[in-house]
Each structure stands twice: as C-alpha cells, then as structure tokens.
Design brief:
It is a single chain. By secondary structure, this protein is mainly alpha-helical. Among the domains are: 7-139 and 240-377, no CATH class; 441-489. 65% of the residues lie in helices and 5% in strands. It is built from 21 helices and five strands. Helix 4 (55-71) runs antiparallel to helix 14, helix 7 runs antiparallel to helix 20 and helix 13 (267-298) packs across helix 14 (305-321). The chain is globular and about 90 Å long.
C-alpha cells in the first residue's frame, strides 16, 4: 500500500528522477520538440479565446508544464491552456463586465488562483474518487456543445467582421447579421489556412514515410502545420502589408518573462469568481484524468487521482503567480506526447524550456501574425472534440443518461457554458444516485424437480428504504425461494 506520508507520494519526481537515463532523455526531448511545435500557436490562440493578451498563453504553458513535471503522476499528460477551459474563462470574465484589459488580466489571475486552491484542497483531502461520480456521456455532450460555440465564435475572424454573443444562438444571429460585411481577403486567408492545416495533418506524414523518412521525423513534420501556416501568413502580412487591406494583425507581444508574484486580488473579486472557479476546477480535473488514465492504460501504467489533483492544483496556482490563466491536460496534445514517445513528465519540462526561448527571443516576430490564422488553428483543433454519437449511444444505453446529455447540450448552447456544465455535474450525481439505488442482484439455482440451472436477475426497486443490502436481497429473493432450491445470490 502506498505510504501517504512519504515525500514520493506528494513529489513523484523523487520516484522517477533517480531512475532517469540517457535513453529516456532522448525520448523526452523528441516528444518535447513535437509538442512545442503544436503548443506554441495553440497557446497564442487559446489566450485570445479566453479574451486575454496572447502572452498569457505562453506564460501559462511555461509554468504549467514545469510545475506539473514535479507534482504530476502521468508520464504523458500535457498541462497547458485548452480550448474548453479558455471558453469557460471567457464566460466567467464576461459576467464581470470589466472596463479595461488590465482588470481582465487581474480577474483571470484570481480565477486561476481559486481554481488552483480548489484542486489542491481536493487532492490533499484525498477526494480524487469524486471523478467517478461524473457521467462520461454528460461530459462528452458538454465538450461537444462547447466546441460548437468555440468554432462559430471564431467565424467572425474568418469573415473579417465583428460579431458577438454569450451563447450559440446569439453568435449565429450576430454572424448572419454581419455576413454582408465580409472581408473577402480575410475569408480567403482563413479558408486557405484551414485547408493547409487539415492537409498537412492528414496527408504529409504518409507521404514523408513513402520517401523513406524516419517515422519520428515524419511525425514531427506532420504536427508542424499550425506553426508553418503561422510563419507563412505572417511573412505574407509583412511582405504585402496586409494590415493596410483590412487584415487584423496580432500586434505587439511583450518580450521576456513575467514577474513571479501573488496577483492583486480583492475579496469582492474572489467572491464573484468562486462559482466559476469551482466549475472550471471540476471540468479541468475530469478532462485531465480521462486522458491521463486512457494513455496510462495503454502502457500498463497508472495515475494517482489524488496526486493528479495536487499536480493540477499547484500548476494552476503557479500559473496565477506568473501571469497565466486556468490550465489542464489537453487531449490532443497529450496523445501527441504519448505517440511521440514521452517517457517521463520531464518531457513537459523540456517543452516549457522551448516555449521560454520563444518568449525571450521571438515574440517581436508575432506582431505580423494575422488574427485570422489563429482562428483557423482553433477551428481545426476543436473539430475533433465534436462527437454527436454520444447522443445516439446514450439513447440506446440509458434513457436517464440521454435526458442528462440532452439537457447539458441544450443549456450549453442556449444559455451558456457555466449553465451547461453546472447542469451536467448535477445530472451526473443524480444519475449515479439513481443507479446505485437499484443495484443488480442475481439469484442462481436449480429449478425445483429438475436438473436445470438458471439465473434470475432481480433489481430491488426500493433499496434506499431498507436498512441494509442483506434486507434488499431478502426482499428480492423471498418470492423466488418458494419455487427454487439450492439457490444462492451474488
């Protein structure tokens, strides 16, 4: 049994660090390079999705990856900004109606701080098991609805118009109203960027392999689509002065790293963000642990739910101290990290070093990056999150799950992401209570007067009204025992 008071329990780096080898270092460096190529444009895009300056995405990535490498138990989880959490951050900040960008950044730091505190406390209290209470179909439906909102919210940049809305319907109405004002050059650049990224992602690896290129090198190139299109469109914007033709540019990005320190937060601000921070914490943990467990199972490894809470909590706390915003484990990045051969959490630390180099020396070049390019990167990234099959599967499997999935989808699209995830969490808990109130009980025995053995399945309908499981089973089996003999229940 794991010693809960051992330093290795709270600092997993003490367990894998002494066993670190040159081979693991080589594997981690290759994975770090591939993930960094993917993460840099994502970090810029997701910070804008959250309604924050682009540098905050770089800061959150650097500190999140570094701290998680110390406290996390997954060898492949990539902890940095993610699309849905960025959308939830934007929704939380929008409720405050803050007048200037500086106050938005301060509020984002407070939100990240609270999220980190919640996650850390849950981890220290060993409450990681609560992830089991949340229904996977409900979470999937929330992610699908959020992805739709994200995708259509980015269409304003593809069209070169100004559209807004707090939910899916408002965004659609705004886009339709502004469609006649579409900037055709922006539309061409955005559509071209999407086509390029999709082509590069789906076609380039197989073609490079046919040319005899090493698999890892081919994989690295196949993940470079977003970075390449950023370089190409940035060069075009500079060479052709596209800003003079209506193309919105990213603008000046501060060079260097932020000052590490406690954010300036008021009690009133913290109080206004408590509910949003709790929902962000819950979703961030569920998303992270889902991908971490999936990837760990493929290698016959394991992750510690409680320590994952500690790792994510400390990463978010550190992000709030260094100018970032809420972060969690990203599904697509973590899968890439896994496929690239990351051997230990050190791969995340090496990724952070590469992003630090960009923040220190290359941010002036970001001035010419078209905003539409980042919108294209977001749209392609979130496409894989959309999964309507969860509705059909829930209908076939359980009408209760279907009702929860439908409500979560409907509220997320029509009211907003916080209403959607709040309803989803509540529905998950109610479904769990409903199912545990009707446990499966099977009676196995031989039919009286024959040698035939059969199984009769029985589900007590009023388990919660009995004093114990044995009473429930007695209530279930007593009518059967009159006609069955040599039976026992399991």
């Amino acid at each position: 049994m794991k010693n809960r008071f051992s330093l290795k329990c709270y600092f997993p780096i003490l367990a894998w660090g002494p066993q670190y080898t040159n081979n693991k270092f080589a594997d981690d460096m290759v994975a770090a390079l591939i993930v960094a190529i993917m993460l840099i444009p994502q970090a810029l895009a997701y910070s804008l999705l959250a309604g924050l300056p682009v540098e905050t995405g770089l800061y959150a990535s650097i500190i999140g990856l570094s701290v998680y490498a110390i406290f996390g138990t997954s060898n492949t989880l990539s902890v940095a900004p993610v699309a849905v959490l960025s959308l939830m951050t934007a929704a939380a900040l929008a409720k405050l109606s803050l007048p200037n960008p500086e106050e938005m950044v301060t509020a984002a730091l407070a939100l990240t701080f609270l999220s980190g505190v919640f996650l850390l406390l849950l981890g220290l209290l060993r409450l990681g098991f609560m992830a089991n209470f949340l229904s996977h179909p409900v979470i999937s439906s929330f992610v699908t609805a959020s992805a739709l909102i994200i995708g259509f919210s980015q269409m304003q940049y593809i069209l070169g118009v100004s559209a807004n809305g707090q939910n899916f319907l408002e965004i659609i109405v705004s886009l339709v109203r502004e469609a006649p004002n579409t900037n055709l050059l922006t539309l061409a650049l955005g559509a071209g960027s999407i086509v390029f990224i999709v082509f590069w992602k789906t076609m380039i690896k197989s073609r490079l392999l046919k040319l005899g290129l090493d698999s890892r090198i081919a994989t690295t190139f196949s993940r470079a689509g977003p970075l390449l299109i950023a370089l190409i469109t940035g060069f075009l914007a500079y060479a052709l002065r596209l800003d003079q033709q209506g193309i919105q540019l990213l603008g000046e990005v501060p060079q260097g790293l932020p000052v590490f320190g406690l954010p300036d937060m008021s009690v009133d601000l913290l109080g206004a963000l408590v509910g949003s921070a709790l929902l962000i914490s819950i979703f961030g943990f569920v998303e992270s642990i889902s991908v971490a467990q999936t990837l760990a199972a493929k290698r016959r490894e394991r992750v510690d739910l409680d320590q994952e809470l500690v790792g994510l909590g400390t990463a978010n706390l550190a992000s709030s101290f260094s100018g970032g915003f809420p972060i969690s484990g990203g599904f697509s990045r973590s899968v890439v990290n896994f496929e690239a051969g990351a051997a230990t959490p050190a791969a995340g630390f090496f990724t952070a070093i590469l992003i630090t180099i960009v923040a220190l020396f290359f941010t002036p070049a970001l001035f010419w990056l078209p905003r539409v390019t980042l919108a294209a990167i977001i749209i392609v990234a979130i496409y894989g999150l959309i999964d309507f099959s969860v509705v059909r599967k829930a209908w076939k499997y359980s009408k209760a799950d279907f009702a929860a999935v439908f409500i979560t989808l409907l509220l997320t699209l029509t009211v907003g992401v916080e209403a959607g995830i709040g309803a989803g969490v509540l529905a998950s808990i109610l479904i769990h209570l409903y199912k545990t109130s009707q446990p499966h009980v099977a009676v196995i025995g031989r039919v009286k007067g024959t040698s035939i053995s059969e199984v009769l399945t029985c589900t007590p309908l009023k388990l919660l009204k009995t004093n114990s499981r044995s009473e429930s089973m007695k209530a279930c089996t007593s009518p059967i025992l009159a006609t069955w003999k040599n039976s026992f229940s399991i």
